[in-house]
Amino acid sequence: MSKKFKIKKGDKVTVITGRDKGKKGEVLRVVREDDRVVVQGVNIVKRHTRPTASTPGGIVEQEAPLHISNVAHIDPKSDQPTRVGFRVEEGGRKVRVSKRSGEVIDI
Predict the structure, then answer these.
(1) Mean pLDDT, residues 40-53 taken together
(2) Count of C-beta atoms within a 10 Å radius of residue 54
């Protein structure tokens, strides 16, 4: 059974601890096996890659995964970090909501 996270691909998050604290970005990928997320423009590392038929090789900068506990959702209303809760709307649809403002995160 796969783990359930409150953070999904495409969510806007901010880094709350570590070397990139305060940076904001969009979640590109969620790695459920390791409890990690890859955030656009955050935790940039240099990788030495070997040339292949499609890539020339050399030193490439790319995003490395962060632990999911080091990022927090951004409240759609106040642009501040927030926790996430759930609410069932009319029609039985379960949506994620911001604990800070009560605003719906799912679109």
Answers:
(1) 95
(2) 5
Taking residue 12's Cβ as centre, other Cβ atoms within 10 Å add up to: 16
Cβ-count burial 15-52 (b if 16+ within 10 Å, e if not) = beeeebeebbbebeebeeeeebbbbeebbeeeeeeeee
Distance between alpha carbon 8 and the CA centroid of its chain, in Å? 7
Side-by-side strand order, sheet with 66-67:
66-67, 36-39, 24-31, 12-15, 71-74, 81-82
| Mean pLDDT value of segment 73-77 | 93
- Record the pTM: 0.85
Number of residues that this document lists for the chain: 107
Helices (H) and strands (E) in the chain — how many of each?
Answer: 0, 10
Separation between Cα atoms, residue 97 and residue 104, nearest integer Å: 4
Calpha distance 37→28 (Å, rounded): 8
